[in-house]
Amino acid sequence: MEELIKILKDLHPDVDFDTCETLIDDKILDSFDIVSVISEINEEFDVVIPAEEIIPENFNSAKALYALIKKIEDED
Amino acid sequence: MIFTSAGFIAAVIIPAVLYYLLPKKAQWPLLLIASIGFYFAADKRYLIFIFVTFLAAYICTILMGRIDLKTKAYIDSNKDKITKEQKKEVKGRAKTRKRIFLIIGLIIALGILCVTKYTNFVIDNINLLLKDGSKIREMNIIVPAAISYYTFQTCSYVIDVYRGKTTPQKNPFKLMLFVSFFPLLVQGPICRYDDLAPTLFGEHKLLEKNISTGLTRIIWGYFKKVVVANRIAPAVIALTGDTDTYKGTFVFVAMLFYAFDLYCDFTGGIDITIGISKVLGVDVKENFNLPYFSKNIKEYWNRWHISMGTWFTDYIFYPVSVCTPMLKLSKWSREHLGQKIGKRVTVYLASLLVWFTTGLWHGPAWNFIVWGLMNYVVIMASQELEPLYAKFHGKFKVKDKPLYGIFEIVRTILLMSMIRMFDCYRNVPLTFKMIGTMFTKVNLKIFSDGSLLGIGLTAADYIVLAVSFVIILTVSIIKNKRGHVISDNAFTLRYSLLALLLMGVIVFGAYGTGYDMTQFIYNQF
Fold it and tell me: Residue A30 belongs to what domain range?
């Protein structure tokens, strides 16, 4: 989780990713950020997040995104 | 058929009345009949194209659904016998088989779109390279109405079924209605199956709320289209048609007029679409969110033609950006070009593809492609300038000042309006030249010497346009502040305003001799 928070913090240092649950709904993360995060996750966790998983529910909070990474890791 | 034609109005009123008289189970079949009738009335030859697109989508998605069911049944019945790796392999094989049907469905739908809409564009460009004697003759191909809209809508359904997001529709008639729902066949919006299906196939009681909000929306749309867009369109045509006379400051005027024209034309048309659907109890998602209140172009594209923007994001930008070759490229560029540039490569390449296709989607012409690429350049430039903006805002605390907000809004409107001139002149070098004259041939006298009365607008027209502008701006400001204009329970206010608006449309509408009941601008895309 710490690595993920670090990736997100690099993009938006002023956001509290531990508590924020509206990253997409409040337009904190835009499409460019999402692609950047996915590419960093691929490097850091060796996990490929497919396009069909790019939905608000998976990106609204760091917690949800981390759960997605774990789900894909489990499936692999 | 256009929204302002008598045929269209009859084609809406008759099914709308029957809709609530017939048993509720007959409602969606009636909409299907009306939709086919609507398309048939536009041109009977169009039907074959939309039918083939529908049939390919239906067969491919049904087969994809079967693969999913079989795979699930196999895994469920063997869950104690197969290992995790075997389960993954079974799923992988199923996905590969599904991908074949996805590709077939998309090739057929997009193939029809490409052949009908882009063949002559390709021929024209090949001819530029050939000598006079060996030029290829243009083909006589009909372009079915609304093909760009229904093709994209159908493709989104096929992709969503492939992704497992949407359950395939087994009833072919229901799917045909989703592909051909007539209010969307004028100029979209491009609806997603999961958003539209629940109310499109649902049974609807005659509700006063649906009728009144729907009618208000329809009349508001007609006001924007008939009072403003139809009135100002001839002036835009005059100003951009005679480039020898109308250069310099005239280009600036044309730019602002076209911004107002396009806004009223497109948002007005979508208001009518959403309003008609609402009367029928069908919920169509909003396609605009006060786009002219955007503070930068990126925000503008999140508020303008939302259904098209999200389509390109979900089905081109994301899949291209996160595909394995792109992730490899991202890794390679970080290692070789450094973190800063490397991080941007995939986003920049995917965005380039998105804006190129967005331009091409608007029309088979270079002016649209350059228009798309200009949007790309401005968005990327503002992305690159972000650190500079941050520095500026760190030094000068103006970000939250209302005046600075207005400056940002005006800057975005002017920038977008300038890029849109490629749409008006339809000639890339000429557009650049005319935009150039705006800065080199400034002539403020045109505002006082009567020149602007010679472009198809009388003094009375200017008054109507000015009053309309104030009304539209006031409504937009109220909507921006409160989220809605009239509350659902304010019946008296709603009906009073409805009556006033209707009178406004009848009295001040620009129709009759001298006015071409112009097609919607976005209908051609």
Answer: 2-75
